[in-house]
C-alpha cells in the first residue's frame, strides 16, 4: 500500500489537535453507516443505511455540523438511502463511489441530491485521503470484478491514526477479497484493531483466508432484524476463531470507538451488556514511506477527474458537467452549450 498517492488533503492548517478520532458504527438497522470524525472536526460518512429519517435523526443525535466527504461502498439501498439527506443537509465537497451506477430510484435520488449540492463525484481508485491528521486509504475494487455485481465492486476504507487501524469493506464477497489479497501484501492489511464485518455477517462475506490477513482484534457487525439469518453462525465462528471480540448494533445500538493520539482506543456501546474490547495490536515498525506526490497540508483540491463518457460521469454523480468544471470535456458537450452530459 506504500504506492498510494495523496488525492486530497482535508486538513485545517494551523489547527491544534485536541479531540480524539471517533468512529461511530451507527445503529441503522439492517444496513451500514459509519461516521468518522477527525480530531480537527472533519467528518466522513461511509454508507448511510436504508432509512433517510433514521440517518437524519442519528446525525442530529451526534451533533454533526458538517460533512466533508460521503462514501458509498456500493449502490445497494441499505447502504446509500441515508446518504440522500446527508448530502442534502451538509453539501459535502466529495462523493466517493465505485463508479457503477445503481439501477434503483434510490440511486437516482442520491445522484440528483449530489448534483444539486454541487458535490463532486470521485470514482474510487488506489488513493489516500488525508482527513486532517487521519489517513484514509481507499481500497478500490480489484481488476476483473463483474460490472453487474455491486457487492463484488465494494469500495473499502482503511482508517489510520497513530498506531490505530480500522477497516470496512462494504458487502465485498470472497472473489473481491481474494483479489485484494493478490494485490496487497498481508502485512499491509492487518492487524486491524476495529473491523466492520462484511455484509452484516453473511455466509458469503468474511472467509478464513481474508481474516488470516486482516487479523481483526474487534469486529463490529452492523445488522438489524432480517430474513437472511445475518449474522450467520459461520461468520460468528470465524470471528471467534480469529480471537476477536464481537460487537453488534442490533444488540448494543451504536458502537463508538474513541481513539487517542498514538492509537490507544476505547469501545463503548449505546446499550446492552458491555463486551471487553481487545487492546491495540502490537505491530512491527513500518518500512519508510516514500514522499507523497503532494504535501499533506495543501488545500482540498483533488486531481481533476477524467470521465471517458457521460455514463461514467453520471455514475460518479458528477453530471451535468459545466465548462471549466473538473471532468468537463468538449467531446461530451454534444450541443456545444457549455454543459456536458445534461
Automatic annotation (TrEMBL):
> What GO molecular function annotations does the UniProt record carry, in alphabetical order?
hydrolase activity
* Signal in keyword set: yes
The residue stretches assigned to a coiled coil in this entry are none
Region of interest (Disordered), residue spans: 265-296, 317-342
Q: Which Pfam families match?
A: Excalibur, Lactamase_B
**SMART domains per record:** Excalibur, Lactamase_B
Q: Which InterPro entries match?
A: ComA-like_MBL, Competence_DNA_uptake, Excalibur_Ca-bd_domain, Metallo-B-lactamas, RibonucZ/Hydroxyglut_hydro
- Extent of the signal sequence: 1-18
- Per the database record, which ranges form the Metallo-beta-lactamase domain? 30-199
Tagged with keyword Signal: yes
Its domain of life reads Bacteria
Task: Name it.
Answer: Beta-lactamase superfamily II metal-dependent hydrolase
Keywords (A to Z) from UniProt: Hydrolase, Signal
Biased region (Basic and acidic residues) positions are: 330-342
Return the Low complexity bias intervals.
Answer: 280-296
Task: Identify the species of origin.
Answer: Deinococcus metallilatus
Chain ranges of the Excalibur calcium-binding domain: 306-342
